[in-house]
Amino acid sequence: MVDMDASSTSLTQNSSPIPPSPSYSSSSIITNYPLISAIVAFIIAQACKFLLIWYTERRWDAKQLVGSGGMPSSHSSTVTALAIAIGIQDGFGGPLFATAMILACVVMCDASGVRLHAGRQAEVLNQIVYELPAEHPLADTRPLRELLGHTPPQVIAGSFVGCVIAVIGNFIRKATAQT
Question: Which residue intervals make up region (Disordered) (predicted)?
Fold first, then answer.
């Protein structure tokens, strides 16, 4: 049995290489800078899709306000704004930023990889079903959603929107903190 005195115990506890996590007050959710940045980035990216469809096709498509796919990627803007805001607030060297950055990378890779190709497969399957004879049991099936993923430029544009929103949000946060 090992006998440890109080001085060696306190030395071990105080010399821990892991710094204590920052304590956050129980402030309101509306002052959560990373969360607000992510939500605003999502809303702006969705609004951009809506306006781009109107500009390019001269038609209003309300589905663009909530749908996936299109320019810019709202998924990319959301997770990028979240990661950058966490980095600005808590530091870019911490585990929280690392976690958010890995999440952002996974989401963006998924958007431009798996979901993009699933959408392309849906196009082919919809065309096959469309060409089936009317008496075929699958001829009346509902078409699959084709606009699921994003091209790399759409992901990059979404990520840019997220970065800009996080930086602007930080300027606003600092300005309101000084007043």
Answer: 1-26
* pLDDT for res 115: 66
Q: Domain range for residue 137?
A: 114-148
pTM for the model stands at 0.70
| Residue 12: inside a domain | no
Structure tokens at 166: 């996080």
Judge if 143 and 158 occupy the same domain: no
pLDDT, greater one: 37 or 14: 37
Distance of CA 145 to the CA centre of its chain: 21
The rounded distance, in Å, linking the Cα atoms of 27 and 142 is: 47
Task: Say how many C-beta atoms besides its own lie within 10 A of residue 73's C-beta.
Answer: 32
- Contact present, 41 and 48 (Cβ < 8 Å): no
Name the DSSP letter for residue 95.
Answer: H
Q: How far apart are CA 132 and CA 105, in angstroms?
A: 40
**Could you tell me the pLDDT band of residue 10, with boundaries at 50, 70 and 90?**
very low
pLDDT digits (tens, 9 = 90+) for 131-176: 777 777 777 778 766 666 778 888 999 999 999 999 999 999 998 8
CA distance 102 to 87: 13
